[in-house]
Amino acid sequence: xxxxxxxxxxxxHCDGVTKTYDAGGTKVTALRGIDLDVRTGELLMxxxxxxxxxxxxxxxxxxxxxxxxxxxxxxxxxxxxxxxxERTSYRGHNIGFVFQAFNLLPTLTAAENVAVPLLINxxxxxxxxxxxxxxxxxxxxxxxxxxxPKQLSGGQQQRVAIARALIHGPKLIVCDEPTSALDHxxxxxxxxxxxxxxxxxxxxxxxxxxxxxxxxxxxxIARMDDGRIVKIEEPEREQEALVPSPSGRGLG
Length: 252
Ligand code: ADP
Ligand code: MG
Known about the structure:
single chain; alpha/beta; Rossmann fold; 10 strands; 29% helix; binds adenosine-5'-diphosphate; binds magnesium ion
């Protein structure tokens, strides 16, 4: 309705974002002036060598780390300009985070893990569990709601983590190396799931990855080096319509 405003299709707007860590007197500059727009409806991958600032950048974007200078807007909102309390609430309703190491709570069942963001947002336990079980069905784990994380494979744990990141209907989903702890085939399935459940016209998905084998899932790839975005490109795709899907991608 308000699409005449060109900024409406921008999920994340970074302009000159810098960040220097100060660890016991040693300063490490992780971001040296990041300019980046993430559009709604897209899956943007952030790639680059270890230590180039990828985790720092998505932590700033997700509002879990303060930057030093420049501007970072999420759906037009400057998360550094609001109180901690407002920021926690904004994050709790609008942003989902998927970690490399899944970060599931070991003593909670899979469904309870998925319910956590809703419980934090104040939903009743019975409603939250009902929604969590529904979300687990969406990631094809409807029969594992009562399993503990350690009873699940890596791929299943990452699917639980994805369900948890999506349960509150966030408009921005940020994933830090979501396939790096998974074998190729499982990583592929996780990416297919993310594309299917997390990409939507009003949403944006930012995925940090080292894994060149999943680049084909991106709409755009932003390459980082030494705290800067050095290039933004569209991935090379095989001629999808003409070539059968590569082996190992079946849903077995
Ligand atoms: P990447 O995710 O691309 O591997 P990071 O964003 O984790 O890179 O790190 C960027 C730089 O910042 C690295 O030099 C790293 O050592 C440093 N760094 C990251 N986190 C901290 C921290 N909490 N304290 C001090 N230095 C840090
Ligand atoms: Mg990292």
